[in-house]
Specification:
The complex is a heterodimer of chains A (about 525) and B (about 150). Chain A is an alpha/beta fold and about 525 residues long. Chain A contains 22 helices and 16 strands. Chain A has a five-stranded mixed sheet with strand order 2-1-3-4-5, with helices on one face. Chain A has a five-stranded mixed sheet with strand order 13-12-16-14-15. Chain A is globular. Chain B is α+β, with helices and mostly antiparallel strands. Chain B folds into two domains: about 60 residues; about 70 residues, Glutaredoxin (3-Layer(aba) Sandwich). Chain B is built from eight helices and four strands. In chain B, a hairpin with a 2-residue loop joins strand 3 and strand 4. Chain B is elongated. The two termini of chain B are about 25 Å apart. The chains are: A alpha/beta (about 525), B alpha+beta (about 150). Chains A and B meet through helix 1, strand 12, strand 16 and helix 17 of A and helix 2, helix 4 and helix 5 of B.
């Protein structure tokens, strides 16, 4: 019997994938709810297995199902005549040029099947890791050059070495799955489409650092991902990949899922640890670093989802294979996320070094509205806005830092020429004031004063003096905040001021107010 | 849930909390379970949870008030949550949010419209959750269509 793949990914579901799946089931077709291939503008993108490979149909609606379902298993089925026919999905130009490592299985496998995972190379990294000493596993990860994918880019091997070498009665692995930055959805998609990779990565981490218990902190806005992860964890316990004496190695690792409650700041690692402990998600002063005193005061390896999801491949194929990809000190691949006002939004996984312009214009196809690109924000709400003049920048942690920007987690949000950058700067301050944990003054009060100051600039009140005040405030927040929330909020504000000073100039309000209406 | 008697509610909350006493850092899972069962967390619920988990009322109240998901009043019949983070703003979320808020009463009886910062649907914005279901490419017309049943 023919199998039809209908993504269960939240983005696909948001444009009708559940209704399409139900229509196929009603027509008697067997349906697998795979993850999404990441070509989100084509969702719901359904696939049918053929002798030539899986062929796809784009933007399928329940009304299309009758025509598609009838005679699916007949060799002369007139697929190619259907207007939404895409051909063999793996050969689609958008996918064929990518180098998928962390996303190799996403959209391909059945995320609920532990055997499908194994058939696609799953558990090979864990098996090899369990044959090595913890220090050897840490050395392999260090050799790979893997850096934290949550945004900070800290070398994962060094963090793990610290946890491994800290003596304690108990240690933890904590996965930061509080993917709250606008323009990022790769963590969500990898967990919804390939959750066993995260389970495997965390189990390898546990072996490497000597942890016996792990927590995944999932934001509450991601119920689909939490459900997929819980199913995978249950299956992993059943098949001996979690729990006591994993694969007969003697390793014990218990893995728990915890749900956030709508606080952006809990994506900051120390706030997340407080939240996991059942407290207000307030930032902790460092030192001590979590690797020495983390969850419940014990040494804790805190890693982002994609960092942990890179680990199984590194252990399966060796750190050198991963390090062979990339550029400079940015090794391996990055999962870029094309978002916002973009024609072809979705996931592009490529080695570091690809330019911003290639991602936005070649993969992204420019704006959805068809208007010129005016600004892109790379790396989340606490990162810089860049003009198209900087599209030649290679995606590389150091190259971006030199340009006063950051690669962060690789989220790219595109804006067309109707955007009012003074409004976006104001929003950065507003967001900080709404989401600040309140522990430190520069962030808690500075952000509110920032909104007020930008409001005065927009209103044309004493503009030059208020611009000086805003600059001073940004410096105070940058230098005086406890964490990146207050410390980096000035980055979007100051980059907007630097690249689009005309938007802050009340003399040119004609165009600005026009933009304000559209934006 | 309005029909839940005070004593019955207290017993239920205590039973929920008791299920988690063996877990480390049990407070967040307990509060989520109270929300799932009862729709909101009352002042009396805070006291019951504090008592069972051996925490101070102030500690529990502090956590309830910190996180946006924890309501302290009964939930409305219908909810529209719209993302107004950057990616959705780039495709018109601010105007959609302002418009939907101003029309909340016209969408149906007892409707709340909230802002949310990001559902991770940033390539298909404006994104929103309507009565618990995620939608992409929202517009005024689409919201009207999705909420049509509220007005019949």
């Amino acid at each position: 019997m023919t199998t039809v793949y209908v993504p269960g990914d939240a983005a696909a579901v948001s444009v009708g994938a559940d209704e399409v799946a139900a229509a196929f089931e009603a027509a008697g077709v067997s349906v697998v709810r795979n993850g999404s291939r990441g070509m989100l503008w084509l969702e719901p993108l359904i696939e049918v297995a053929t002798d030539d490979g899986r062929v796809g149909f784009a933007n399928v609606t329940p009304e299309d199902v009758e025509a598609l379902a009838g005679g699916l298993d007949q060799p002369d089925h007139p697929w190619t005549e259907h207007p939404s026919f895409l051909g063999v999905v793996d050969e689609h130009p958008w996918l064929a040029g990518q180098q998928r490592v962390s996303f190799a299985r996403v959209g391909v496998v059945d995320p609920s099947s532990v055997t499908d995972y194994e058939a696609h190379g799953g558990w090979a990294g864990l098996r090899r890791a369990l044959s090595m000493s913890p220090a050897e596993v840490v050395a392999e990860v260090t050799e790979s050059g893997l850096r934290g994918r949550g945004g900070a880019g800290f070398p994962a091997g060094i963090k793990w070495k610290t946890v491994l070498e800290t003596q304690a009665d108990q240690k933890f692995v904590a996965c930061n799955f509080d993917e709250g930055d606008s323009g990022t959805f790769a963590d969500r998609m990898v967990v919804e489409g390939d959750p066993f990779t995260l389970v495997e990565g965390m189990t390898i981490a546990a072996h490497a650092v000597g942890a016996t218990e792990g927590y995944v902190y999932v934001r509450s806005e991601y119920p689909h991902a939490a459900a997929a992860l819980r199913r995978a964890i249950d299956a992993a316990y059943t098949h001996g990949f979690l729990g006591r004496d994993i694969l007969g190695s003697g390793l014990t690792f218990e893995l728990h899922v915890r749900i956030g409650a709508g606080a952006y700041i809990c994506g900051e690692e120390s706030s997340m640890l407080d939240s996991l402990e059942g407290r207000r998600g307030e930032v902790r002063a460092k030192p001590p670093i979590p690797a020495i005193s983390g969850l419940f005061g014990r040494p804790t390896a805190v890693n982002n989802v994609l960092t942990l999801c890179a680990v199984p491949m590194i252990l399966a194929d060796g750190g050198a294979a991963y390090a062979a990809l990339g550029t400079g000190r940015s090794r391996g691949t990055q999962v870029f996320q094309l978002a916002g006002n973009i024609r072809h939004g979705g996931i592009v996984e490529l080695p570091f070094g690809v330019t911003l312009g290639e991602l936005v214009e070649e993969y992204g196809g420019g704006t959805l509205t068809g208007r010129p690109v005016r600004a892109v924000q790379v790396g989340g709400p606490l990162a810089a806005y860049l003009p198209p003049e900087q599209f030649g920048l290679p995606m590389d942690y150091e190259a971006f830092a030199e340009a006063g920007a950051m690669v962060g987690h690789g989220g790219i949000v595109v804006f067309d020429d109707t955007v009012d950058m003074a409004r976006m700067a104001r929003f950065a301050m507003e967001f900080c004031s709404a989401e600040s944990c309140g522990k430190c003054t520069p962030c808690r009060i500075g952000s509110t004063r920032g909104v007020e100051t930008i409001d005065r600039i927009i209103a044309g009140q004493d503009v030059s003096a208020n611009l000086v005040l805003l600059d001073d405030l940004c410096e105070t927040m940058t230098k005086g905040s406890l964490c990146a929330m207050g410390g980096l909020t000035p980055m979007p504000v100051q980059s907007a001021l630097r690249h689009w000073p005309e938007d802050f100039d009340p003399a040119s309000t004609g165009s600005t107010s026009e933009r304000g209406v559209d934006a | 849930m309005e029909t839940t008697s005070v004593t019955h509610r207290a017993a239920l909350v205590r039973a929920i909390a008791a299920q988690h006493t063996a877990h480390r850092g049990a407070l967040m899972p307990v509060l989520h379970d109270v929300m799932d069962e009862l729709g909101y967390i009352s002042r009396e619920d805070v006291e019951a949870v504090a008592d069972v988990l051996n925490l101070s009322v102030a500690d529990v109240h502090g956590v309830v008030s910190f996180y946006k998901d924890f309501r302290t009043t009964p939930p409305p019949t219908h909810t529209v949550e719209l993302c107004r983070a950057e990616a959705c703003q780039s495709v018109g979320a601010e105007a959609l949010y302002a418009d939907t808020r101003s029309r909340a009463a016209k969408l149906g009886e007892d409707v709340e419209v909230h802002e949310v910062f990001c559902f991770g649907n940033c390539a298909l914005g404006p994104a929103g959750v309507i009565d618990g279901r995620l939608h992409g490419r929202l517009s005024t017309e689409r919201i009207d269509a999705l909420t049509a049943g509220w007005r019949s």
